[in-house]
Amino acid sequence: MSGIKPSFSKALFSGLIMEDLVFPYPKMDKEEAENIKMIVESFNKFAADKIDATQIDLDAKIPTEVIDGLKELGFFGLNTPEKYDGFGLGSGGFTKMLSAISEVDSSVSLTIGAHQSIGIKALNLFGSEEQKKKYLPKLVTGEMIGAFCLTEPGAGSDAAGIKTKAVRDEENGYYILNGSKIWITNGGIADFFTVFAKEELEINGEVKEKISAFIVTTEMEGVSKGKEESKLGIKGSSTTEIFFEDVKVPLENVIGERGKGFKIAMEVLNSGRLGLAGGTLGGFKFIIKTTMDQITQRKQFKKNIAEFEAIKKKVAQMTIDFYVAESMIYLTTALVDRGDVDYSLESAMCKVFTTDIAWTGVNECLQMAGGLGYMKEYPYERLVRDCRINMIFEGTNEILRLFIALSGVQERGEYLKKIGKALKDPIKGFGLLTDFATDWVKDKIITERIREVHPSLTSSKTQFENYSKNLRFSVERILMEHGRDIIYREMITTRLADAAIDLYAMIATISRVDTRIKEIGEEKCDKEIKICNTFCEQAWRRVRRNLLMIDKNNDDVLKEISEFITEEKEYPFMTE
Asked: Which of 34, 94, 185, 414 could form a disulfide with 89 if both were Cys (CB 3.0 to 4.6 A apart)?
């Protein structure tokens, strides 16, 4: 990744605040913003006439006329470059579109999003010019619909454990592909599959199995589809198993380098997680508006529901969480659109934070609606069901927390490893050790600072700086105590990830509000300032607790209880 700047959050794990990546808060290009506005308006007009979210949920299918209408609007080519007849939207614009579509229906958003965020993303990112010219024109118009085929019965989050095999036949010019993939979004309606399979490669004189990415289409003999899955939510979207039986895949259908499929899959998912986060916000935004109408009209004890403090607290927290998630997402999409920054951790953080707060928030909306929230004639129960999958999609939130923490500590670990080698040969490593000692003393006395922000945000900024420093010291203690075994200490790494997520959320929100104040003045930003400071107050306290619990916790007791119940295979305690 030559020329790619380090990730803001990875650097944060090492105590470095790369403020130029987050200040000032990015602003979408005026022309693109106008384009997005027009595209959203065209969609809303179409949706008002054609999309019935309740009926889609009941029928467990998106009507053909809706899919055809979306094709005519060009919505299957939103983020494909204009040279291939797409709209050419950047990451920020595409994410805004998915959010707008999700306000109407999650299944429709998922169908469009899965096609572009992951289904054809590998082709867009890593495909050859010949591959793009051959397939993208049909994919952009929706003549072909794309799907991403990674997950298998025995390999969910453990992508490296896939069993699907591709055997290369140089003489005949094709691979023989065998295997199956499960839970494939768009599976039943897709014609184009990005398939990940293992092939044998000779590396340094040794034959090894490596994952490669392949273009497979339904035109190839041996491709078949399973029945539509019956799901808890997002029922209108198609989800099926896909089977490959002796499929002849042309050699030229390898996407990118042979054996680099795992890297390609991860890059695709890094990008796709932002679309998922944006889509999640859209559904959340819709249900917030519906709930506000409900609580300002419904009366109990001669008062509107909205007047009770217990309700006010819920509304305020949802508003804060939504604003912060939005701040994180569109700061990160700007990093993607720069094209020169590693955004892998930030996209994972956005997915985890947004899907967590939306799940909590949608449940709170149902709670505020009371009994009618449980009834099918209202949208609450559908949104709860639709929303639940988001914490599982594209990497479960548990796995992503491990990814965030372990990726973050890796770079600091590499530096400490060099220090360890220098200690073994102190004469040769004298310069490195001197730098380390100076660095350590400096950081004990001086806190890494960021640029001055508006005085109304000074306290939030100071807490971000203080706990960024504490994050680094916690990382170093963890590495010194656990070394490589840290990968097995998931309770610790989860706390570390949650601390890092809160810190990124803090800086994204501080940047957004500070930039906003500079644009329109403090007086017009009163509510945003309060949202920012309230969140940062909540966040730094969570960070402090999570970092303290790295050293002082009851993890061993929790593991003991868990192992006992696992052995019993049931809840064994009986009341007297």
From this structure: 94
Q: Tell me the fold of 146-263.
A: Butyryl-CoA Dehydrogenase, subunit A; domain 2 (2.40.110)
- Spatial contact of 289 and 363, defined as CB atoms under 8 Å apart: no
Choose the CATH number for 26-141 among 3.30.2090.10, 3.40.50.11310, 1.10.540.10, 3.10.129.10.
1.10.540.10
Q: Give the dihedral sign, CA 307/323/389/396.
A: negative
399-563: same fold as 271-398? Answer: yes
Cα–Cα distance between 147 and 122 in angstroms, integer?
11
| Cα distance between residue 256 and residue 260, in whole Å | 7
**From 152, 394, 476, 528, active-site residue:** 394
- pLDDT of res. 433: 43
Q: Quick check: is 394 catalytic?
A: yes
- Retrieve residue 227's tokens: 């029945």
* Cα gap 274→352, rounded to integer Å: 10
Tell me the domain boundaries of the chain. Answer: 26-141, 146-263, 271-398, 399-563
pLDDT on residue 22: 96
How many angstroms separate the Cα of 351 from the Cα of each of 178, 467, 527? Answer: 32, 22, 25
Based on the number of CB atoms within 10 Å of its own CB, is 31 exposed (0-12), middle (13-18) or buried (19 or more)? exposed
- The Cα–Cα gap between 236 and 111 comes to 9
Q: Is 330 exposed, middle or buried (0-12, 13-18, 19+ CB in 10 A)?
A: buried
**CA-based R_g, the chain, Å:** 25
Instruction: Collapse the DSSP code of 173 into the 3-class scheme (helix H, G, I; strand E, B; otherwise coil) and give the result.
Output: coil
What would the two tokens of residue 196 be?
A: 């990940």
Q: What is the DSSP letter of 245?
A: E
Specify the pLDDT at position 480.
87
Q: Which parts of the chain register pLDDT below 70?
A: 1-3, 411, 413-448
pLDDT at 332: 98
CATH class label, 399-563: mainly alpha
Asked whether 345 and 407 are in contact (CB, 8 A), the reply is yes
Query: Contacts from 291-298 at CB under 8 Å and sequence distance 24+?
Result: 291/365, 291/368, 291/369, 294/368, 294/369, 294/372, 295/368, 295/369, 298/370
CATH number of 271-398: 1.20.140.10
* CB-based burial label for 497 (10 Å; 0-12, 13-18, 19+): buried
Task: Identify the pLDDT of residue 271.
Answer: 87
Compute the half-sphere exposure of residue 409: CA atoms within 13 Å on the CB side of its CA. 28
